[in-house]
Amino acid sequence: MRGVTKTFGSVIANDRIDLDIRQGEILSLLGENGSGKTTLMNMLSGIYFPDSGEITVRGQPVTIRSPKDAFDLGIGMIHQHFKLVDVLTASENIVLGLKEKGRLNLREVSARVREICGKYGFSIDPDKKIYDMSVSEKQTVEIVKVLYRGADILILDEPTAVLTPQETDRLFDVLRNMRKDGKSIVIITHKLHEVMAISDRVAVLRKGVFVGEVSTSETDPQKLTDMMVGHAVTLNINRPLVEPRPLRLEVKDLTVLTPEGVRALDQVSFQAFGGEILGVAGISGSGQKELLEAIAGLQTAQPGSHVIYHPPTPDEAIAGAHVPVAPDGEELLGKNPRQIHRIGVSMAFVPEDRLGMGLVGSMGMADNMMLKTYRSGRGPLLNRKPPRALAEKVKQELDVLTPSINTPVRRLSGGNVQKVLVGREIAQEPSVLMTAYAVRGLDINTSYTIYNLLTEEKKKGVAVIFVGEDLDVLLELCDRILVLCAGHVNGIVDGRTATKEEVGLMMTNLRKEAAGV
Amino acid sequence: MSAPVTQHEPAVRIVKRDSIPTWKAWCIRLLAVVLALLLSGLFIFAVTHLNPVAVYQGMFEGAFGSERNTWVTIRDAMMLLCVGVGLAPAFKMRFWNIGAEGQILVGGILTAGLMIHLGYTFSTPILLCIMALASIAAGALWGLIPAIFKARWGTNETLFTLMMNYVAIQLTSYCVALWENPAGSNTVGIINMQTRAGWFPKILGQDCMLNVILVMTLTVGMFLYLKYTKQGYEIAVVGESANTARYAGIKLSRVYIRTMAISGAICGLAGFISVAGAGHTISVDTAGGRGFTAIIVAWLAKFNTFVMILIAFLLAFLEKGAIEIASQFNLNNDASNIITGIILFCIIGSEFFINYKLVFHRRKEAAGK
């Protein structure tokens, strides 16, 4: 790829990028979120068309206008979000869209799928339906789909984001087998240890600009971080121990059903304390969303479930803003967010779906600030003065980049959207603060801003519940980590002593089986 | 291995715009209108060999040529605007109320019925108040039923409101038969022709002045309601995302029901204005498709009621103009409808160019490399 440029509106996603991909190697494309990795690869796989620049495959200048063109050139991409049809089997998904002459012979397809699997060390049942598959299996189907079409340049977009450490190891073995077979592999990632573990070469992007490439053997994580961020950053998060830590939230036998009647949470019990960050680890979709939403009053729980809130005692620093209703604890289940607010519980919730749940995308910062408080004040009219003042304050204190506090938040970048949301939630002086994937999609600097904000809240005596996906961060930020697996609590570990392998193992069912439960 | 690809680069690419200055957006809309006039001119000339300028002149005369024509246009625009204002809160809430037609009719039925039966009992001002309240109640009820079903059982409001239209149309047919005058005509005729009981009084010498006052009050009121009240804020949040609304502690069912009551009530009042302030009769054509046309008014204005005034006038102008040229140039109604269609198509299509821009591939630049 030579001088490839792509702009979206006024944003330059890729600025004159030169990149070589060699046969029989694994190349890591490293960069922070929003640095243009996926955009660059999307141009290679025919999703986007470059504004300028040229692409050469095996010495031939080519024009890639569609994913089909890319397949014809042997380029296949495995996207972060799988593009599979749930009700079809693996084989059916694999041949979908292929224009082969003659009748479709699914048995032959299955045989070829098995052959490909055997060659590279996958394990997959070609006749299994997609909806019965785990995330890891679905990913395998995507990879086989690309190989079935004869691709010899494979692009994987953050393939490990949804995998447990064990599954990641298995995937890496497969990728090494492919390299042996002469395939070229590009993996898009921002996880340094994976880069070190798997790749031969690393190409680094920063803010749409190509920073450089190095052989993996000649570099180390610190050097790569410096290249990625542009200046040296310390990877340490400050984790003070706060005393005292009073009981704030007690979850007992919480069971929540999905609309299909499956148990998303099964008899979940734990306690959360003021002055600590309780991490929640687990493969995505293990019940994290339901857990936070049930506590926030957005999910109905099964009978027998309890979420007991223990109000701060009057001598606590954060007590001033809240009215203790029942000193021995108040049941929160069965109340909606408004009722929870009305009984004096200040609960802050930063949901996973920022623009679909936490904010109103078409409104500006100012109008978003009053989402939970617009009812305050007498009379039928809105009082826009306090939210405006708050918006200005959040904009200033958190460095929110926005043309004005009336610009629709949908137009802001992901990091700024999250700052608006977190800023509002913290401004309500919560006693419980819940965040779901608070740093997903944010660059390192913004992520650290968020970590620091959470730690500040913890120091104030707030009970923080932090649902995360990056185990390194969970282990550095949290005082305790609760591990969810398929709706069960598989254990609660001390964040200061636990190891990544230990937590990773608990995220899968291995530990339960070993314990004979 | 694959064959070398020798396709050319695409000549045009569609790129989403970040944002666009307001003046530029209006320029694009203006260009669309000009383009529409040129296109329809071509059509007129190709089909009828008439001078397009003369045809346009005819349209303008039909709408604004005389004082009477002007007031008829104003009256029709006000009707359309009134229904559009009624639809605005529902559509802003993303509640697809396509039942305005029925809500207008039930408001009209009650107005006509009261006018017939109480015309000799009460004086006109009191009768007008009674009719207004009754039509508001009827329209609100017609809007409430689908809202309650949606809130309780999650029924599809689009189908439900549409079906309610047919119920209202049948009710109207029944009432027309009931109140038939003179017998056998299958129409209600002009109600209280002699006494003018229950008719809108003349204000400043104009029959339709009260229509204008009522509708403009509603227009301003709805603008303020949507923009400055807590309920208006709730409507905006619910419309953007039901999940966000639940997160904010907004009771969805209550907002659905309340907003649809308001939406239906205003449409019902439109029925009252139509019967007491314009037609002085009731028939299945009293709504005359305005319940649907007003959807265009509400959408094109993006629920800004002041912009709706402009669009309501444009549509009323097109309709009146089309009727005029149909008679003046001996074109049939379909030909003038085609012109209306072309103009609307261009205006709605221009929104695409406001949201997206086209980037043309420059051959020279590519060759230079």
TrEMBL record, chain A:
Keyword presence, Nucleotidyltransferase: no
Domain of life, source organism: Bacteria
InterPro entries: AAA+_ATPase, ABC_carbohydrate_import_ATPase, ABC_transporter-like_ATP-bd, P-loop_NTPase
Keyword Chaperone: no
Keywords: ATP-binding, Nucleotide-binding
SMART domains linked to this entry: AAA
Endpoints of the signal sequence: none
GO molecular function, one term: ATP binding
Record-annotated ABC transporter domain positions: 1-232, 249-511
Gene3D superfamilies linked: P-loop containing nucleotide triphosphate hydrolases (3.40.50.300)
Protein name according to UniProt: ABC transporter ATP-binding protein
Record organism: Oscillibacter valericigenes
UniProtKB/TrEMBL annotation, chain B:
Transmembrane region(s): 26-50, 70-91, 103-120, 126-147, 209-226, 255-276, 296-318, 338-356
Entry annotated with the keyword Transmembrane: yes
Signal peptide: none
Record's protein name: ABC transporter permease
Any Pfam family hit: BPD_transp_2
UniProt KW RNA-binding keyword: no
Location(s) in or outside the cell: Cell membrane
Topology term for the membrane: Multi-pass membrane protein
PANTHER family the UniProt entry points to: ABC TRANSPORTER, PERMEASE PROTEIN (PTHR47089), GUANOSINE ABC TRANSPORTER PERMEASE PROTEIN NUPP (PTHR47089:SF1)
Keywords: Cell membrane, Membrane, Transmembrane, Transmembrane helix
Chief subcellular location: membrane
InterPro entries the record matches: ABC_transp_permease
Domain of life per record: Bacteria
